[in-house]
């Protein structure tokens, strides 16, 4: 325990089988100083586990939890709350949450009240696998600790700057009005990248940037003057580039075909979210490290598919800006795999883009060669920090 409990901001990112949490002390050079990060994994399984590390990465806790205490997200949130209040000797000043969907209107983080919570619940059909889990901890904290301010930060918000045309599919207006729009996701990651570019590469930050978030989920974003103008993801986080277990681009006719084969909605949903992408294509794994280490022809083929379609989808975003000045890779694969960055960039040789092998092996920041007409960079993302910053800013506005 260090300073007083009321000097902290808690960030929560709740998924279907895990809750990740990060604690920041308010103050210090950067305004927010990371104190610890943890997660409960295996929610709803027989062996849920709590792991917490301090800011230097040293383990603070690592233990099994009784399955009945983490049978679902609300339950697991109680475990996080109890552990934190024991550790801090009190509650955080505010909690910032990652919420996948802010719908067509919410373009900024918001302080959560009953009205906002009801609005966010109404967006659950737009993200049925994520939104209910994201909102569960908000509800638990509102019930148990109503005095704590809570802020919802949306993966869609950064993309609300898209033009009317970028926001559309070629479907009847009625569907658009009902919400069939190209919302775009990973917005918190891109917002951080835009901020980081302003700090470390200001010349590029004002230009035309294509950023690619290559993690378990994969997307790319066209940013002009630090604002999103297009994204490869659309109505759901299924569209666009190939991912760990999601296919990315897919002829909508395939879904019709699956229905004709007698697959139920839930079976199709499971197939598209959990059994496709690198996992489906390789038949081996969704983990890029395993595929890179494998000699199997299907692993090679999956990696070739990934590099080709990611390269194609990324460079296609240049049309939204009539060109591109810089390319940025981020997230698990984008930050750590020189081999995949090289494989993707090889598809841009016709543009004169060349990576410098040594810079690429060092993971940047600049990985392109000096004579490459378009600079290619690696920038580490930090979605939690963006959430903590927004939460603190909204608190200060209050
Ligand atoms: P998320 O937060 O969306 O779960 P991450 O951004 O952590 O995802 O990225 C996870 C992906 O990053 C996994 O496919 C993993 O294999 C990949 N990854 C992590 N480190 C490396 C590495 N050194 N080389 C290749 N892939 C990596």
- CATH first level of the largest domain: Alpha Beta
CATH architecture annotation name of the largest domain: 2-Layer Sandwich
User: Cofactors and ligands present?
Assistant: adenosine-5'-diphosphate
The portion of residues assigned to helices is 25-40%
Please count the helical segments: 15
Strand content: 15-25%
What class do helices, strands and sheet pairing give? alpha/beta
Return residue spans where pLDDT drops below 50 for at least 5 consecutive residues.
Answer: 1-6
Tell me the number of strands.
13
Order of helices and strands: EEEEEHEEHHEHHHEEEHHHHHEHHHEH
In total, the number of domains comes to 2
Given the C-alpha coordinates, what overall shape results? globular
- Radius of gyration from the alpha-carbon trace, in angstroms: 21 Å
Describe the sheet with the most strands: 8 strands, mixed
Mean pLDDT, to the nearest integer, reads 95
CATH superfamily of the largest domain: ATPase, nucleotide binding domain
Task: Give the neighbour order of strands across the main sheet.
Answer: 5-4-3-2-1-6-8-7
Question: In the CATH scheme, what's the topology name of the largest domain?
Answer: Nucleotidyltransferase, domain 5
Distance between the terminal alpha carbons, to the nearest Å? 28 Å
Enzyme class: transferase
GO cellular component, one term: cytosol
Family: Belongs to the acetokinase family.
Subcellular location: Cytoplasm
